[in-house]
# Entry
Amino acid sequence: MEKRIIKVSSVEELISTLEKNYGPTWYEKVSLQITETTGQIEAVVKPIDNVDSGTAIEELTSIMKIKSIPLPHLSNIEKQYSNPVVRVNISEDKMQASIFIIPGFKRILPTVDEIKQALSNSQIVYCDEKTILSVIQDQKLFTEVVVAQGKQPVLPKDASVEFLFPPTGFLYQRPQADEKFDPASLYKIFTCKSGDILAIKRPPEYGQDGITVTGEIIKVEKPKDINLSSFLGQNVAISEDNLKIVATCDGQPYLENSKVCVRNLLVIDKDLGYDTGNIDFNASVVVRGNAEGPFKIRAKGDVLILGILGEVEVNCGGSLRVQGGVFGRGKGIVNVGKDFAAKFVSEAQIFCGGNIIVEDYIMNSTVICAGDVKVFGKGVISGGTLKAAGNVEASELGSVANIRTEIAAGIDYENESKYAQLQRTLIQIVKRVNVLSSSESSLRNQLLRTKDTTKRESLKTLLVKIQEAKFAFEKQLHKTRNAIRIIKHNMQLDKLRFSARIKVRRVCHSNVKIQIGLLSKLNSEEIGPCEFFLDKSSGKIMCRSN
# Structure
C-alpha cells in the first residue's frame, strides 16, 4: 500500500474516512501521522511498520504508565443534556417542517407527545404521526426527518389559443436521410377546406389555494379569459360552441397581426424560387414575377403569372393567364382545366380544357385544346402541332422556310390530349432504355477485358442493376405503346366536330398539314387569306378565299 494523505475538518470525519477505506479495524492496518492546522486536520496514512519486539515493549510500557487521559468536567453537561432535544426546522417557503433529534445522556429518545409539543411550539398546525412513530421506532438520531408537508397551491391556467396551422402559411418539410433531395419541395403551402378547424380555444383553468405547515393560506389569482372573436380575420368564423375558429372558404390559413385569416388567393410577390418552392394550392394563385426553373405549380383555381412562364410544370383547375408569355424550352408542360391566355407560346406543351387566346404567336409547340384557338397580333402559328376541338384562327400558318406545321380542328380533345402525353412519355422511356442499353454494352466489354477478381465482381453487380432497370423500362415501353394503339383505334366519331373551321387572316405557307375531324391534307402552296372547312357532300377538306 502506498502512502496516502487525508485532509478533513474534524477527527470524526477522519475516523469515518478511515472506516470507509480500511474497515472498522483500520488501526490494525494503517498507522497515522496527524498534523493539526487552523480548521483542518491532515493525516498521513501508511502501512503499519514492522518494529522489533524490544522497541514495541518499551513503547507499551510507556503507554501503560499513563493510566488515564484528563477529560473536561462533564457533570454540568450531563445534567444540562440529560434529556433528548427535538429541534424543528422550517423551510424558507414554510412548505416543509423537519425534526432533528439529539439524544440525551440519561434518556435517548423523546416521546411522541414531546415531538408534537416541539412542533406546536414552532406553530406547526399539522404533522405526519406515522413518520413521528417511525422516528422513535427506528431511533433516527442526528438525522433530519421531514414530518410535515404543506399543501402546494395549484396555479391557474389562463385561457389560450392553439393554432392548427403554421403561422406563415408555409410548412417546412425536412427531407429524410435516404430521400432524394429536391430543393423545390422544402416549402409546402399549408391549405385548408371550408369548415376545417384552424384554431382551438383552451378554456381557463382555476387553481387551488395552498397552505403552509404553519397554517398560512397561499392565495392564487383567478385565470384570465380570452375573447376568441379578437382572433378573427378574413374568411373565418367562430364555431357554435364558441371554442373553435373555422375556415369559411378553401385556401391558405395564415396569421396576421395575431388574427387567423384564410386567403383564397395565394400571391407570390416575386419570382418563383427555392424559398417558395413548388406551389400546391387549393384555390387561385398569382405570381407577380417570373415562373422559371425546376418547379411545379398546382392550383385548383385560376393561375395568373405576370412574368415569363418557363419550364415549370403547371396544373391548373381553373383558367391560366401568362402575361409575359410562355417559353418552355422544350420542357414546360401546362395542363389547364378552363381557358388559357398568353402573350406568346414557344417550345411548350399546352393541354387546355377551354379556349386559347394568344396575343402574338405560337411556335414550335404542341397545343391540344378542347375549345377554340385564336392568335392575334402577328398571329403566327409555326412549327409543331396545334389541335383544337373547336375552331382555329390565326394570321399566318407555317413559315417562309416551310417548317412542318400541323393544324387540326374538330378533334377529339380527350383522346388527342392523352395521345400527345403518352407520346411524350414514350420518348422519355425510349431515351432511358437507350442509355441503359449503351451502359450494359460498355460494362460487358469491360468485363471481358478485366481479369481482377474484385473489379469483376463489382462490374457484375452493377450490370445486374442496369439489367433490372432496363427490364422495368422495357415493360413500361410495351405498356405505353399498347395504350397509344388503343387510343388511336378508339377515336369516337361523336366527339369530332366536322363543322369546325381553320381561319387564316393573311397567309398559309406550304408544308402545313391541315386536319378537320379525321380527314387531313398537306398544303403545298402559299394561299390566303382563306378558310379551311370540311365539305360534307364531297367528304374533302376545302379552302375558301376570304
Remarks:
- The chain has five domains: 4-64, 81-149, 160-263, 265-417+497-545, 434-490.
- The two ends are 121 Å apart (CA to CA).
- The first strand starts at residue 4 and ends at 8.
